[in-house]
Amino acid sequence: MDEANGSSLLLFIIYFPKASNWVPPADIKEQPSYRTALIVTFIAVVYSAALAVATIAIGAVAPEYLQAYANSLGIFAAILTSIQYFPQLWTTWKLGRVGSISIPMMCIQTPGGFLWAASLAARLGWAGWSAWALYLITATMQGVLLIMGIVFELQHRRRKRAGLVPESETTSVSGDTISEEIEGPQETSPLLNDRTTKK
User: Where are stretches of biased composition, namely Polar residues (predicted)?
Assistant: First the structure.
């Protein structure tokens, strides 16, 4: 588990909404429990530890298989990286707004991802594709989300200037949330529909 993912996991546990201080929106029947969050964290830590042990074992016993092992992990990571963006892309598309996604942050992060991927590719070449392909895919997904967000934000501002947007609806750039009067998915809507949401 790298430092960024470890930090995200720690923040996930710290800021996971507790039943005592958070009321779920009306469209959510049941909020996942803090126990569920701890189980997810435990699984992630065990998985990371298992990968570390497997890497050390392969390096010690059969180092000639390390490149194939790295490539297989690279493919697996690329698939998971792609999948993790689909719920956010779909929700943003259905919402037609960026919500709490920071466009300025994405403007910095997206080019940075491409630069980092290019830097790794220049140093490692095609032999190290399993290292830089992951960053390339991530940056591409972020780029799609960024373009979608910019287009939606410009459309929203154009409608607002034309007087087609209710005063109760605010832009995400100001940090405000979307009014509950708006039908359809909202910022508090889950990214994935499951048994806890109304169909």
Answer: 168-177
Quick one: DSSP state of residue 165?
S
Rounded Cα distance between 140 and 185, Å, is: 25
Tell me how far apart the alpha carbons of residues 98 and 93 are, in angstroms, rounded to a whole number. Answer: 9
Write down the H helix ranges in the chain: 3-14, 34-61, 66-95, 103-124, 129-161
Q: What percent of the chain has pLDDT over 70?
A: 71
Distance of CA 177 to the CA centre of its chain: 19
Q: Are residues 41 and 94 in the same domain?
A: no
pLDDT value for 21 = 53
Choose one of 61, 78, 110: the last residue of a domain.
Answer: 61
In the chain, the N- to C-terminal Cα span, in Å, equals 36
The number of distinct structural domains making up the chain is: 2
Overall pTM surpassing 0.70 (yes/no) = no
**pLDDT above 80: residue 191:** no
Same domain, 100 and 191: yes
**Rounded Cα distance, 103 and 125, in Å:** 32
Tens of pLDDT, residue by residue over 85-124, are: 888 888 888 888 877 778 898 899 899 999 999 999 999 8
Residue bearing tokens 């010690």: 60
